[in-house]
Amino acid sequence: MSSTSVSMTVNGQKVSKTVPARTLLVTFLREHLGLTGTHIGCDTSQCGACNVHVDDKCVKSCTMLAAQADGTSIKTIEGVAKDGELHPMQLAFKQNHALQCGFCTPGMVMTAIDFAKNHQNPDEQEIRNHLEGNFCRCTGYHNIVKAISDGTKAMHNK
Amino acid sequence: MYEFDYLKVSSINEAVSKFKELDDPRYLAGGHTLLPTMKQRLASPSHLVDISNIPDIIGISTNNNEVSIGSATTHHAVATSETINNLIPALAALANEIGDPQVRIRGTIGGSLANNDPAADYPAAALALKATIVTSEREISCDDFFVDLFETALNEGELITSVKFTVPQKASYVKFPNPASRYAIVGVMYAEFEEGARIAVTGAAPCVFRAHEMEEALKRGEELPEIIAEGLNSDIHAGAEYRAHLVKVMTKRAIENAK
Fold it and tell me: Which top CATH class is A3-79?
């Protein structure tokens, strides 16, 4: 089998593994590292359930090879809470009831944190535009938009 | 996905020479078309040659009346580039409407042009903005580059290295997106130059094309003519007659919005 060696930092920890070349980043995270918080939804680069941060950029990990992430620093949903305390964006999702089944939530939160870094005081339309690549089939997005608005403020006010 | 081998290259020469040595390779940049295609088993390359880390094909520069964009430059980089927002704001706006934020952070201009998807946005920009496609072998005029559905003038193993756009007097891109996929059902890039306007249409036909009749009508100061539906795409999303109608409507809007 054609394999390749990959080394990266995942949630602050260095990992090195030899994997089949065709291993997707999302498969690497879930099956090789056991980080199952990152979900596979559509598997066609549309739904955003697999979104993670690669070198501080939010990407769809189902549309990137583990080999392409060699040498990068990755953050997944497992890495956003600190010392058992929810990240301000996670807290905002909880407080705004921004999830029902929760399947899309890890990807939503990763997108939201990335968005908040580049927006101080976004309006509703900016948030909705930025959710173009994240699907939620339960909530109708309303509470997610509210949560991202609150979470963004909380991230900038701390 | 079928099995394949993966290798990274760090220069244009290395990319081209590796490509020649291998059995059935493909270049990989952002991978936002190639990887989904491979997942569907519609492509099964023996090797992926990763060109996304070649410094020479990333970045944006200007020279006289041209803006040059390296082929591995992402849509996000184009959308947020100060240079492009100043010189060709319509091109930055077009890049900012491709896919979604995560697609734009990975997808590249070279990949989009080489793929020549009939509904992709960049081919319309290249054709309207008198682009020159620079490759590992030669320079190709946009008028010769787009051949047919998913087909370009590129030879096997020929790598796009940059794209040179001509700065127009003003321009605008207006698209009528498919509400589900956001690909263009019809997209029109309108660009004004000293010698007249160029109107490039994507989404409507099997391949991007210039609306010569409309360009001529504008030159003569006449009303825009009706577009003939024959030969246009017709599918569950939009019939050919509806697409023909949209071409005219999107063109009118693009002319009004041009800046």
Answer: alpha beta
CATH architecture of B55-166: 2-Layer Sandwich (3.30)
For testing the chain A interface, which of B3, B6, B98 should be mutated: the one with the most A CBs within 10 Å? B6
B46: nearest CA partner in chain A: A2
Q: Is B73 helix (H, G, I), strand (E, B) or coil?
A: coil
Kindly calculate the radius of gyration of chain B based on its CA atoms and give it in whole angstroms.
Answer: 18
Which residues partner with B173 through β-bridges?
B189
Q: What is the DSSP letter of A133?
A: G
Share of chain B above pLDDT 70, in %: 100
pLDDT at residue number B213:
96
Q: What is the pLDDT of residue A1?
A: 63
Q: Domain B5-50 carries which CATH code?
A: 3.30.43.10
Give tens-digit pLDDT for A61-98: 999 999 999 999 999 999 999 999 999 999 999 999 99
Q: Residue B154 gets which letter from DSSP?
A: P
Max intra-chain CA distance, chain B: 58
Burial class, A131, CB count within 10 angstroms (exposed 0-12 / middle 13-18 / buried 19+): buried
Q: Nearest to residue B125, comparing CAs of B83, B172, B65, B178?
A: B172
CATH class of A88-157: mainly alpha
Question: How high is the ipTM of this complex?
Answer: 0.95
Query: Residue A9, exposed/middle/buried by CB under 10 A (0-12, 13-18, 19+)?
Result: middle
Question: Please, are residues A145 and A124 in contact by the beta-carbon 8 Å criterion?
Answer: yes
Chain B contact present for A96, CB below 8 A? no
| B35 contacts A21? CB cut-off 8 A | no
Q: Give Cα separations from B188 to A90, A133, B12, B29, B219 (angstroms).
A: 41, 24, 33, 26, 18
CATH superfamily membership of B170-257: CO dehydrogenase flavoprotein, C-terminal domain (3.30.390.50)
